[in-house]
Amino acid sequence: MLERKIVRLIIMANISRRQFLKSAGVATLAVAAAGMMAGCSKEDAPVIPEVTKEVKVIFICNGATAGKDGSVVVKKDAKTVPVSLIKAEQIPQGYTVESTGELTIKEIDGKECVLVTLKKIATSKKVTVAFYDTVHKALLSTTMTITVASDAEFVYKTDLKETLPGYEIIDNGKNQISENNRVVMEVKPVVAEAMRTVTVKYLMQGSNATITTATIDVPKSKDTLTKKELPGATVENGGLLFDVVPAMNGPFGINKLGEDKGEVIVMASIKMHK
């Protein structure tokens, strides 16, 4: 028994001083690294080649990279990286992390990496606007889709960027956006105004000779036309084209001829068409 102990001591004594120091050094580094990684923040955890390694963090959103790559320091034999280890400062602005749990370390282009899935933070949302006909007591089949701020709780008449043909939106209050991003606004049908066909007769200033005529449809309630409302007219003479130019700015009174017709007399001149 004593002989075996002596042999063991002799064998242990044959371990070189260099081997002993190397083994002791690695052990010391491991203890130091463990202490530093426990005491340091995620931002300044050092890389100790014998004990730890740096892993590249690639951020992905909708199948494409997003923002700058990050990095984490983990144990040298680590096969995964916990999502919680990724620095918040490294996450690209405007995104939130969708990945959870442990991320598998993969080799990409010769470097150990993990892929982190991100989701873009919404700054707006789509809301469907439905319309309730207050006259016929029914929902219309026509709807509109508008974009509002992501935190919006109400939709107002002024949020609508287009009109609803054939209807007047009479809802002037605030409309609560439902959980499925939908609101209902009250409308009433607009009765189309009856129209009158007016013939505009252009007479040559000074001679009262008829130059030409043109027609325009206007509401029956309308009694006059402005210069801008007059229908444009041209005439041809000697193979040349001339513009008919009203001599006055108006307004020009409408002479009502029966229920559906009218006439306007306009003194004018002509000038060469450009």
**Major sheet summary line:** 6 strands, mixed
Please count the beta strands (DSSP E, at least 2 residues each): 22
Mean pLDDT: 84
Multimerization state? single chain
Cα distance spanning the termini: 126 Å
General form: elongated
Total number of distinct structural domains? 3
Helix content: 10-25%
Please mark out the parts with pLDDT under 50 across 5 or more consecutive residues, or reply none. 13-18, 20-43
What is the CA-based Rg, rounded? 43 Å
Into which percentage range does the β-strand content fall?
over 45%
State the secondary-structure class: mainly beta
Instruction: State the order of secondary-structure elements, H for helix, E for strand.
Output: HHEEEEEEEEEEEEEEEEEEEEEE
Query: What is the overall number of helices?
Result: 2
